[in-house]
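Tokens for chain A. Residues wanted.
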């Protein structure tokens, strides 16, 4: 039977690669829903090609354009965040691929799980903000959360068949980003153009900046905690600049399993959509002879503070990770608009960790309020400047 897929964020880096995977496997997958925030032209082109049942454009001012273009094709068109949050409940969907960026993924993911849809999770921010609630809901509703993030897909693949064997340690690999080995002095003046040049991966702007600050690895530490039910001290990060070893699991006998491959997100996307089956592919194959030196080093937590913030958030618990995520989303946006400097991204997060209200056992409503509060605290700090 074909799997019907809803892709939230179909016009982005993950979304477009997911559509390539689906195009290559028309006998396995059907596109049921496509959504995008503002790239109406690409959304229309995708809808014409894949003929989904429904599309949602986030930016309401673009509704007429999309609706007019798709009217002759008998495709339902909706707009705005409320529509995005409810289309995932459509009875024909089997898997929701959360390929949208940031906190905006939270409510659609909650609704999809409640409606019994399996989640192919690229949107790591959702687990960072409310991992406890999401994982509990997934168990209650008997849905799988299938990781798309390459590191978590690697760990997930290493765990297949190991259900009686506890994890001793997870080792997440990090490329180190474009500023690996750089000093604080150097980072003082770096501009977005430098930060946007990732050495190994071609991704959306937000995750590319997160990779440059090591926030991405911090978010992934938190994501790993919730996906694999481990303690923070069971998660190590090692810098591996070639991005070939995608991550590793150490078991209680000391044995380590790793998953390797060229850096290509189509593989983890396809693994999540096809799970438990591995689908035959023509992706380029990795050859050890071309990579005689796979290297590993310690992350520099003094220079790249965001990774330590993530561990701190896990130790504190409650809504601290939600605070970090909201502060980071505001900080990255401000950096991309040249309003704050690269190092001020960490300063802003540190500020919000102190100033936003801490809640020990948050409900979903508390997370929503905490996200809003932290955004306001961060914006206020940006407007008053960092010397005050
Ligand atoms: P992207 O910026 O390329 O695409 C984001 C998509 O989300 C677009 O389709 C956009 O229209 C939509 N979107 C943006 N803001 C939205 C909003 N407020 N409401 C609804 N939709 C919105 O991002 P990406 O690189 O594809 O990343 C998507 C997610 O996958 C992120 O959470 C990222 O951390 C994660 N991820 C990405 C990669 C990668 O290689 N790109 C790897 C691992 C994990
Ligand atoms: Mg990753």
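Reply:
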């Amino acid at each position: 039977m074909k799997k019907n897929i809803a892709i939230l964020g179909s016009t982005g880096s993950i979304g477009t690669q997911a559509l390539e995977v689906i195009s290559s496997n028309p006998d396995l997958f059907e596109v049921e829903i496509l959504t995008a925030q503002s790239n109406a032209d690409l959304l229309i082109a995708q809808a014409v090609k894949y003929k989904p049942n429904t599309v949602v454009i986030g930016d309401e001012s673009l509704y007429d354009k999309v609706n007019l273009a798709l009217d002759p094709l008998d495709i339902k068109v909706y707009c705005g965040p409320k529509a995005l949050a409810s289309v995932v409940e459509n009875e024909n969907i089997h898997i929701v691929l959360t390929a949208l960026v940031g906190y905006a993924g939270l409510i659609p993911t909650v609704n999809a799980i409640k409606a019994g849809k399996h989640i192919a999770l690229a949107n790591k921010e959702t687990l960072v903000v409310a991992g406890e609630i999401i994982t509990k809901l997934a168990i209650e509703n008997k849905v799988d959360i299938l990781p798309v993030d390459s590191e978590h897909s690697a760990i997930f693949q290493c765990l297949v068949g190991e259900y009686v064997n506890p994890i001793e340690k997870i080792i997440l690999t990090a490329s180190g980003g474009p500023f690996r080995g750089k000093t604080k002095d150097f980072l003082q003046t770096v501009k977005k153009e430098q930060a946007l040049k990732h050495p190994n991966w071609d991704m959306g702007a937000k995750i590319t900046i997160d990779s440059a600050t090591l926030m991405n690895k911090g978010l992934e530490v938190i994501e790993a905690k919730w996906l694999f039910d481990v303690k923070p001290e069971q998660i190590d990060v090692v810098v591996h600049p070639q991005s070939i070893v995608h991550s590793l699991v150490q078991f209680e006998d000391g044995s380590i399993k790793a998953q390797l491959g060229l850096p290509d997100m189509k593989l983890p996307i396809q693994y999540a959509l096809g799970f438990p089956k591995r689908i035959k592919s023509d992706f380029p194959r990795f050859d050890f002879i071309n990579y005689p030196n796979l290297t590993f080093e310690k992350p520099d937590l003094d220079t790249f503070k965001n990774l330590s913030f993530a561990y701190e958030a896990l130790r504190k618990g409650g809504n601290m990770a939600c605070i970090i995520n909201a502060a980071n989303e505001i900080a990255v946006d401000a950096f991309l608009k040249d309003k704050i400097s690269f190092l001020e991204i960490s300063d802003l997060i540190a500020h919000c960790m102190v100033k936003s209200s801490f809640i020990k056992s948050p409900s979903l409503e508390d997370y929503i309020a905490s996200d809003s509060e932290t955004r306001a605290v961060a914006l206020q700090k940006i407007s008053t400047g960092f010397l005050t």
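Residues 364-384 form the longest helix (21 residues). The chain has a mean pLDDT of 97.
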